[in-house]
Amino acid sequence: MPNDSCVVVGAGISGLLAARELTEAGWRVTVLDKGRGVGGRMATRRTGVAAFDHGAQFFTVRGERFEDLVDGWLQAGAAAEWSRGFADAEGNANPDGHPRYRGSEGMTSIPKHLADGLDVRTGERVVSVDRTGNGWTVACESGESVSGGALLLTAPVPQSLALAESGNYALPEGARRQLEGISYDPCLALMALLDGSSPVPHPGGVQIKGEPLDWIGDNAMKGISDRPALTIHAGPQWSRAHYDDHETDVTRALLDLAGGQLGADLVSSVVETSLARWRYSWVTSSHEEACLMASEEPPLVFCGDGFGQPKVEGAALSGLAAADGLLGCVT
Ligand SMILES: Cc1cc2nc3c(=O)[nH]c(=O)nc-3n(C[C@H](O)[C@H](O)[C@H](O)COP(=O)(O)OP(=O)(O)OC[C@H]3O[C@@H](n4cnc5c(N)ncnc54)[C@H](O)[C@@H]3O)c2cc1C
């Protein structure tokens, strides 16, 4: 097995950026994702007449390395600026001058752009990982198996940890302890198609950052949906308390809460709803470094938004750090 090959589990922003950097360096890279499409938590759901970003809503830019990437996405038409601030919980406009970006046709525009030209296989749920020959072999639920000299695990860490320990490999105790310290909040996300005008104030988002609601956005005002289409995110405590409740109950409760927040009767203006349950949404406790190399020979690296900084920017930088680390292993 040549050591300049890598299997990447996860086609979210971290996995795709790592895969791109390794591919550009001449590595043979295979990316596997259990989802129907790429993007992970940068997720857009389309119905006939509407589109909903139901995971990440927007992203900001803090550091230069990420700024360079975002400039490229803007030039390629994969990203666009959405606003410079959103209404607060009281409904007051809150512009602070810092750009908030979106995917041009929804958040998935960016991962789709990044996946272009890569060997990305969607609909492939990895179920076990084994240490074989000079590298790693991962097996998928479909019966497919893929081998590589290096392995990069990019899923939310509890999922990556379970995969790393699913086969014949024993993770070093120190690495396991550090990985077990990374945690996430859940998020219940309601998508609601409206019949009529949107009660969300300009520019299409209310950033509550609290409980029981965290966010209400209108995907039409955002510029990605033909019809008013709300994304309502419950706060972490509310999401945890109601995570396993019946969809009908969660839907009704979130429509009532969002209606109360917006001063509108959402229940009577909604024509269609759908609920997404994100078990892992925001990171609550992260690893200090931008990635974790659990084994150098053969390389096994963990990355994603649980490492270094959080959110889309943190995940992107973590993917790049993982690729840098892998390239460092073989030079
Ligand atoms: C509701 C919500 C709101 C958010 N809002 C914002 C926001 O406004 N701004 C912001 O910056 N960030 C936001 N975030 C966080 C942001 O989406 C993430 O930080 C970022 O997208 C994480 O990228 P990642 O590559 O680390 O992980 P992911 O995007 O989670 O990618 C991991 C991938 O691994 C795949 N996978 C998992 N297990 C397997 C398996 N066994 N086999 C194959 N594939 C597998 C998954 O399908 C997924 O595609 C939000 C997240 C959520 C859920």
TrEMBL record:
Lineage, broadest ranks: Bacteria, Bacillati, Actinomycetota, Rubrobacteria, Rubrobacterales
This protein's UniProt keywords: Oxidoreductase
InterPro entries with a match to the protein in the record: Amino_oxidase, FAD/NAD-bd_sf
Keyword Acetylation: no
Pfam families noted in UniProt: Amino_oxidase, NAD_binding_8
Protein name from the UniProt record: Renalase, oxidases 1,2-dihydro- and 1,6-dihydro-beta-NAD(P)H isomers back to NAD(P)
EC number from the UniProt entry: 1.6.3.5
Main EC class the enzyme belongs to: oxidoreductase
Gene Ontology molecular function: oxidoreductase activity
The keyword Oxidoreductase belongs to this UniProt entry's keyword annotation: yes
Domain Amine oxidase: 96-326
Organism listed in the record: uncultured Rubrobacteraceae bacterium
Domain of life: Bacteria
